[in-house]
TrEMBL record:
Residues 152-205 form the Sirohaem synthase dimerisation domain. PANTHER family: SIROHEME BIOSYNTHESIS PROTEIN MET8. This is precorrin-2 dehydrogenase. Keywords: NAD, Oxidoreductase, Porphyrin biosynthesis. GO terms for biological process: siroheme biosynthetic process.
């Protein structure tokens, strides 16, 4: 059984290519733009959303058929056309150049998969079935979305702020660990869910002052 190595990639400023201009390509482009990637779309026809992004200068649109030269300087490639022969050509060209390529609806041709993702601010939870069943990954994602609600985004922001302050004020590594552990194991999530913000502030104060030296 082939095992996948899970990884989160920084795409800010990275050049990514999407070959195709339909709904699948649109979803890929939207996710890439969300992560700050520089995006090139190659397709004779594109959805209104892709055209609008191009008009706004958010991506480079090449309204023509795919050329091998489109791969120059790219980091990630998505083959997302509705023509298998084009997707196959893109894949072959990428593999010959050791490029990471994802092919829509053809998991065997991919050398990386895009997981189903839940985002709560800086918190990202990814679910993958290794291309075996995107529908199951989506179902699991929906279950997790109910478990990890919007309060987790608030919690992440709190943890980031406290961590920055603790790293500045607390020199002892063990004391830092205790503060972070105390916060994570506290009932702050439940308090945020119930919008009891005064209690949240009290928990943070207790955790910070209780262990600070």
């Amino acid at each position: 059984m082939e095992m996948l190595y899970p990884i989160f990639v920084k795409l800010a400023g990275r050049l990514c290519l999407v070959v195709g201009g339909g709904q699948v390509a649109e979803r890929k482009v939207g996710s890439l733009l969300e992560c700050g990637a520089r995006v090139i779309v190659v397709s004779p026809e594109v959805t209104p959303a892709i055209k609008e992004w191009a008009d706004q200068g958010k991506l480079e649109l090449r309204r023509r058929a795919y050329h091998t030269s489109d791969l120059a300087g790219v980091f990630l490639v998505f083959a997302a056309t509705n023509r298998s022969e084009i997707n196959r050509q893109v894949t072959e060209d990428c593999l010959a150049r050791n490029l990471a390529v994802n092919v829509a609806d053809d998991p065997d041709a991919c050398n990386f998969y895009v997981p189903s993702v839940i985002r709560r601010g800086k918190l990202a939870i990814a679910v993958s079935t290794g291309g075996a069943s995107p529908a199951l990954a989506a179902r699991i994602r929906r279950l997790l979305e109910r478990q990890f609600g919007p309060e987790y985004q608030e919690f992440m922001e709190i943890l980031a702020d406290v961590r920055s302050q603790v790293l500045q004020d607390v020199t002892d590594i063990e004391q830092r660990r205790k503060i972070f552990s105390h916060l994570v194991e506290s009932d702050i999530i439940e308090l945020l869910r119930n919008k009891e913000y005064d209690q949240v502030k009290e928990r943070i104060k207790n955790a910070y002052c209780g262990y600070r030296r």
